[in-house]
Amino acid sequence: MSGADTGRAPAPEVTGRRTTRQRSALLALLDELDGFRSAQDLHALLRERGDPVGLATVYRALQAMVDDGQLDVLRSADGEAGYRRCSPSHHHHLVCRSCGRTVEVADPPVERWAARVGAEHGFADVQHQVEVFGTCAACVAARS
Amino acid sequence: MSGADTGRAPAPEVTGRRTTRQRSALLALLDELDGFRSAQDLHALLRERGDPVGLATVYRALQAMVDDGQLDVLRSADGEAGYRRCSPSHHHHLVCRSCGRTVEVADPPVERWAARVGAEHGFADVQHQVEVFGTCAACVAARS
DNA sequence: ATGCTCATGAGAACCATTCTCGCACAGCGT
DNA sequence: ACGCTGTGCGAGAATGGTTCTCATGAGCAT
Question: What phi, psi does A54 have (nearest 5°)?
Answer without folding.
Answer: -70, 150
